[in-house]
Amino acid sequence: MSILITGATGKLGSLIIEQLLKRVERERLIACVHRLDKAIQLRELGIEVRQADYDDPLSLERSFAGGSKLLFISSPHTDDTVRVRQHSHVIEAAKKANITHLVYTSFAFLEKANISLTHLHLATEHAIRTTGIPYTFLRNGLYSDVIAAFGIQQAIETGELITYPGKWSFHTVTREDLSLAAATVISTEGHENQTYELTASRAWNFVELAEVLAARTGKSIRHREDPVAESWLYHFLMQIDASSTTTDLERIIGKPTASLEQMVRQIMEQA
Ligand SMILES: NC(=O)c1ccc[n+]([C@@H]2O[C@H](COP(=O)([O-])OP(=O)(O)OC[C@H]3O[C@@H](n4cnc5c(N)ncnc54)[C@H](OP(=O)(O)O)[C@@H]3O)[C@@H](O)[C@H]2O)c1
């Protein structure tokens, strides 16, 4: 039984391939990639690579032919109206290819928001349901990348973490934990027709972020709220549920989700 993975050259897709290689024979994996020139590493790993463009239905049909399970990573396109069309192409091609299990990377707590991003993911989930293909919706929480956007570098330099006023807390997750969950779900049984809200088991807040930054740098860093910190990011975060948590992710990966300390360390090491 083969496993197709779209977006396989992306940050999440690459980590999922890494995890899948530990679980299934490489001969069973088919990487569906947008740009073949980015897939050299996948080929070197001995994985079959096929070209698949979300904008090109024929390429998707060719790419999915003969595949059994499909791990569909949502498009990174910035226009959600375009993404609806791209995702429909993927779903139609999956139906034509008689895919037996469609796993889709969605977004956490969709019903609690009313923005184009959440409409896109809900529309995709509904479209997948119309096919009758057994599905699993991996509703991924907010990537931990967002932590860097809260001005942590400035906080380290100035000793003050300045954030927009409000009762903020975040369920951020690492792509490593999400990839482990995705690889587990697609390579094991019992996940058909399930929806998982994949978040950290516990949300963190800005006071804790300042404490973690202080502990890592050995500097005194205090947290202060100030309307001057207003930005598009807070506006976005106000419109989604980035704070609710579940234990779905921890349960699937069989270990605690990454802590705030681990997420901050990863960001600082990658900076
Ligand atoms: N939960 C969150 O906080 C959050 C945040 C950001 C994004 N996301 C979603 O999560 C997805 C995966 O994240 P990521 O970090 O792995 O993103 P990423 O590194 O940008 O990877 C996106 C993948 O999609 C491929 N792609 C782009 N256009 C395509 C097309 N027309 N047809 C087929 N494939 C195409 C890219 O291939 P090329 O490089 O060859 O174009 C790449 O392999 C994103 O695409 C986005 O939908 C979630």
Outline of the structure:
This is NmrA-like domain-containing protein. This protein has 271 residues and is α/β, with parallel strands linked by helices. It is built from eleven helices and nine strands.
List the helices and strands and how they pair.
Layout: E1 3-6, H1 11-21, E2 29-33, H2 40-44, E3 48-51, H3 57-64, E4 69-72, H4 80-96, E5 101-107, H5 116-131, E6 135-140, H6 152-158, E7 160-163, H7 175-187, E8 194-198, H8 206-217, E9 222-225, H9 232-239, H10 248-253, H11 260-270
Parallel strand pairs: 1-2, 1-4, 2-3, 4-5, 5-6, 6-8, 7-9
This protein binds NADP nicotinamide-adenine-dinucleotide phosphate.
NADP nicotinamide-adenine-dinucleotide phosphate (NAP) binds at residues 7, 9-13, 34-35, 38, 52-55, 73-76, 105, 107, 140, 142-143.
Task: List the main descriptive attributes of the protein structure presented here.
single chain, 271 residues, alpha/beta, Rossmann fold, seven-stranded parallel β-sheet, two-stranded parallel ribbon, 9 strands, 42% helix, 16% strand, globular, binds NADP nicotinamide-adenine-dinucleotide phosphate, NmrA-type_oxidoreductase, NAD(P)-bd_dom_sf, NmrA-like domain-containing protein, NmrA-like
Description:
This is NmrA-like domain-containing protein. Residues 3-232 form the NmrA-like domain. The longest helix has 17 residues, at 80-96. The radius of gyration is 19 Å and the shape is globular. The chain has a single domain, classed as 3-Layer(aba) Sandwich (Rossmann fold). It has helices spanning 11-21, 40-44, 57-64, 80-96, 116-131, 152-158, 175-187, 206-217, 232-239, 248-253, 260-270; strands spanning 3-6, 29-33, 48-51, 69-72, 101-107, 135-140, 160-163, 194-198, 222-225. The mean pLDDT is 98. The strands form 2 sheets. The protein has a 7-stranded parallel beta sheet, sandwiched between helices. The protein has a two-stranded parallel ribbon with strand order 7-9. It contains 11 helices and 9 strands. The chain has 271 residues and is of the alpha/beta class. It is 42% helix and 16% strand. It binds NADP nicotinamide-adenine-dinucleotide phosphate. NADP nicotinamide-adenine-dinucleotide phosphate binds at residues 7, 9-13, 34-35, 38, 52-55, 73-76, 105, 107, 140, 142-143. Residues 7, 9-13, 34-35, 38, 52-55, 73-76, 105, 107, 140, 142-143 line the site of NADP nicotinamide-adenine-dinucleotide phosphate.
